[in-house]
Amino acid sequence: MKAQEQKQAVINFLKHDRTLLGGRNLYNKLAGKNLAFQRQLGRWTNTPTNVERLCHELARTVGLETRLLRVLMQKPVERTKGRPEETSPLEIVKDKTPEEKLMELDIDNGSYQEAVAMVKELELQTNGRKHTDLKQALLQAKSELVKEQVSGLPKEVKASIKLREQFPFLRDADCPDPLKLLVNDLITSYEKFKENQPRLHEKLSDASAEELADVVLRDYVSNKMAWSELEYYKENGKVLGEHPIFEVIKEKEEISTLKTEELAKKIKNLENNISRNKNKGNDELVEKQETLLAHAKQVLEKR
User: Fold this and answer.
1) How far apart are alpha carbons 73 and 14 in whole angstroms?
2) What is the largest CA-CA distance in the chain?
3) Phi, psi of 123, rounded to the nearest 5 degrees
4) CA-CA distance, 112 to 118, in Å (whole number)?
5) CA dist., res. 97 & res. 178, Å (int)
């Protein structure tokens, strides 16, 4: 596949698939794939974290913009006609690798026979044949495997995992969707802040310093606002609702209620506004309007 075809294939995957099996098959076809990652990918189990990690790696490989990736990942999967909702049965019945078995093994409470079998399958060296010796070897192997898997995670996924540890309610089924979306906003704004803030010192005498300062300030404020929302919900069990994302959600809801003729006009207006604001360099407003435009087009397609 040519570069543009590869990028479009990844976009289609993010829109319509987002399964481990589909992503693995697509990654194997990419010209710029990382062979070490490809080998590791073959051992992965079908978990949300692994799927998210794979999506980021696919996007990185084809040079997909971070902003577009974030927009696509926030949307629900649009299943194409004839595509099953569940993962292929072939993947479900696939034999587990020794590494997968190790990750699932309850080392502390497992039997001696299980430990012997696992040590043999992994070809581990032990200090002896006692159960404690086998446990020690298995725990060490499991620790190294976890480190290997975590080290390969995109920084966005690592940050997401840490946030979910700090704010356990993000895993709850009744957690408000806006708070889950805020996780992406928090990670993105913080990474942008870290990237741009040091550059201010390099541009103190540069004409673009003021513009860069505005970007740094905006990302800092966005980061603080997202953090405040999560902290408030953690302490009070209810939404604060001051982050700009709530305004976007409200506008999306209003767009969804528009009649078809009004919706078509809204799409046209958004396209014109995006073009005008791009020329003005108003990136923050452009990003918001592009999100609304994508939502409006999605609503129209379903009618």
Assistant:
1) 7
2) 77
3) 55, 50
4) 10
5) 37
Q: Is the pLDDT of residue 207 over 50?
A: no
Which two structure tokens, joined as six digits, stand for 200? 């201010």
The alpha carbon of residue 251 and the mean position of all alpha carbons in its chain are separated, in whole angstroms, by 24
Q: Give tens-digit pLDDT for 173-188.
A: 788 888 877 776 666 6
Give DSSP secondary structure letters for the chain. --HHHHHHHHHHHHHHT--HHHHHHHHHH-TT--HHHHHHHTT----HHHHHHHHHHHHHHHT--HHHHHHHHHSPP-PPTT--SSPPHHHHTSPPPHHHHHHH--TTTS-HHHHHHHHHHHT---S-SSHHHHHHHHHHHHHHHHHHHHHTS-HHHHHHHHHHHH-GGGGSTTS-HHHHHHHHHHHHHHHHHHHHTTHHHHTTTSTTHHHHHHHHHHHHHHHHHHHHHHHHHHHHSS----SHHHHHHHHHHHHHTS-HHHHHHHHHHHHHHHHHHHHHT-HHHHHHHHHHHHHHHHHHHT-
**Phi–psi pair at 196, nearest 5 degrees:** -90, -30
Half-sphere exposure (CA, 13 Å, Cβ side) for 183?
23
Q: Crossing angle, helix 3-16 and helix 48-62, to 10 degrees?
A: 160
Which single residue is written with the structure tokens 């990237």?
195
288 vs 294: CA distance, rounded Å = 10
- Indicate if the alpha-carbon torsion angle 260, 258, 251, 179 is positive or negative: negative
Q: Is the pLDDT of residue 48 over 70?
A: yes
Q: Where are the domains of the chain?
A: 1-94, 98-151, 244-301
Contacts of 280 (CB under 8 A, 6+ apart): none
pLDDT band at 88 (very low <50, low <70, confident <90, very high): very low
pLDDT band, very low/low/confident/very high, at 83 (cuts 50, 70, 90): very low
Measured over the CA atoms of residue 291, residue 65, residue 166 and residue 104, the dihedral's sign is positive
